[in-house]
Amino acid sequence: MNKSNARLGWLFASPYLIYSLIFFLFPLLWATYLAFTNWNLIAPDYEFVGIQNFIQAFFTDTVRAAFFVTYKFLAMFVPIVVAGALFLAVLIHSLPKFKGLFSVAFFLPYLASGVASAIVVNGILSYNSPFNIWLRGTFGLDIDWLGSAILAPLIIALMMAWKFAGYYALLFVAGLESIPKEIYEASAIDGAVGWKRFWHITLPMLYPSFYTVTILAVGLMFGIFTEPYVLTGGGPDLATHTWQLEIYSQAFERLNAGFGTAIAVINSVVTFGSILVFRKILEKWGAKHGWE
Amino acid sequence: MPNMVGNKPLKTTLLYILAFSVLIVMVSPYLFMVLGSLSPWDEVDRRIIPTELTLRSYEWLFFGGEGVLARPWLRALFNSLFVTLSSTVLMMATAILVGYSLAKLKFRGNRLINNVILFQMFYPAVILLIPLFLIIRYLGLYDTYWAMILPKAVNLWAIFMYTNFFRSLPDELLEAAKMDGASQLKIVWKVVLPMSKSITTIIFLFLFMERWVELLWDMLVVNSENMLTLNVLLAQMFGPYGGYPGPMYAASVLLTMPILVLFIIFSKNFKNGMQFVLK
């Protein structure tokens, strides 16, 4: 009985095992090796170059751009999406009826392909669009949206916030629903109502949702590819040149497979490190409000 | 919010007006896309509401225009559907089997596999991108459907979700089915799956959505025009044909509609199902 269970267990798990061997373990080892070579994706010969790729990455403009651009995206995207998601969640939560309907409706942007939304944004911001004509006519503002090193990343951050706010809002809704009513009742006696209650009671109680949403949002910023690839191509002047764009262009446009892999390794280390720092900051804030 | 007591109906009305306005803002890019695809060409991106509706952009897309050959948009739509469906069905099937074996078939190595899966989930996939591409090339799968399906035939998140969910199912039920002489495979199909409807819907939707909008991988491993997914074809055409915004919107509609329809069909139990996924 137990023996057949064991055999069946391995049998059922075998698709995963075979997959992991071919598409995880093997490429993992290969990547570790490639990162220390100067292979160019085509030539039969290449050399082992030690840590040269990693040193070179440090002095490469595009790699440095990717490093800083990601934090620029973080600074723009995380506050916008957290505030937006929280707003949507409070809105959904305070509706007496049709909560499910509005949850679904606010989630719809998540379905958009980055390619399609880039095309729409490009149209809205095109020179003769009603929006730009209105800006020129009313305020005399003539703005080159995608040509500005500050506005271009902001627009991409806004696109991504539009896409993810409704999704993250569901996490906040779950958090809001889990706050016990007694806490509100007790705090009402102490005179905490309205904004005061929201600020001092609700927000700290939402800490677990804040934690999850922030970590998800931070992690997302290290993997942006589609939106800048279609909308800006990384420009202007590398202002939207993300890690993924850099890895893609090094490995598949300039054919530096070894160097590209090394950059991917650096990207992973930076991502891990940054998420760790954000976790520590969040945990500190949580501890202040009694969360372990 | 404060001091609104005694004004409840007014407050509720205002809330719904606000919620509805936000809803309009959230879906407006979709409306913009649809209107843009139906606008006369001299009004695309110039007027929000077109003066008349026309199918010219869709005609151009499928039959081409002066000096411009039609691209295989319908073929690309088929490719997208075929690749996404095959890949999603495989991810679902493997996740159910692996999840069931990890949750209910207690065998040696069970916990080890569980831990390895957790490790893999947090391992940055980007490192694997280049070697994965090379493996596909060496296996001779470059420019085939297999290249887009096989590396995305197993999904760790789905396995993780199913494992956790199956653990919450009572063992007695499965034992009873076993007493009746049902094989494990039959138990999965006849007993376990019917009890997992809402989570299955949600996992399917998420896998499908994610696979549908994949760009980088599908762009890397496929080259000939007849093999491209709709997402890749649109991304590639947008550069040279950015001057034809109407047809670009039409193609965007083609890309967006299937997934919107699918989602709305399955959205009935969306909020309940999400509650498990978000835990």
How would you characterize this protein structure?
The complex is a heterodimer of chains A (292) and B (279). Chain A has one domain (53-288): MetI-like (MetI-like fold, Orthogonal Bundle), CATH 1.10.3720.10. Helices cover 74% and strands 0% of the residues of chain A. Chain A has helices at residues 2-34, 52-58, 61-94, 99-107, 114-124, 130-139, 151-177, 181-189, 194-205, 207-221, 226-231, 243-253, 257-288. Chain B has two domains: 8-54, no CATH class; 73-278, MetI-like (MetI-like fold). In chain B, helix 8 crosses helix 9 (184-195) and helix 10 packs antiparallel against helix 13. Classes of the chains: A mainly alpha (292), B mainly alpha (279). At the A-B interface, helix 1, helix 3, helix 4, helix 5 and helix 7 of A face helix 1, helix 3, helix 4, helix 5 and helix 12 of B. Chain A: Belongs to the binding-protein-dependent transport system permease family. Chain A: It is found in: Cell membrane. Chain A: It is a multi-pass membrane protein. Chain A: It comes from Guptibacillus hwajinpoensis.
Properties at a glance:
heterodimer; A: 292 residues; mainly alpha; MetI-like fold; 74% helix; globular; B: 279 residues; 2 domains; 14 helices; 0% strand; disordered N terminus
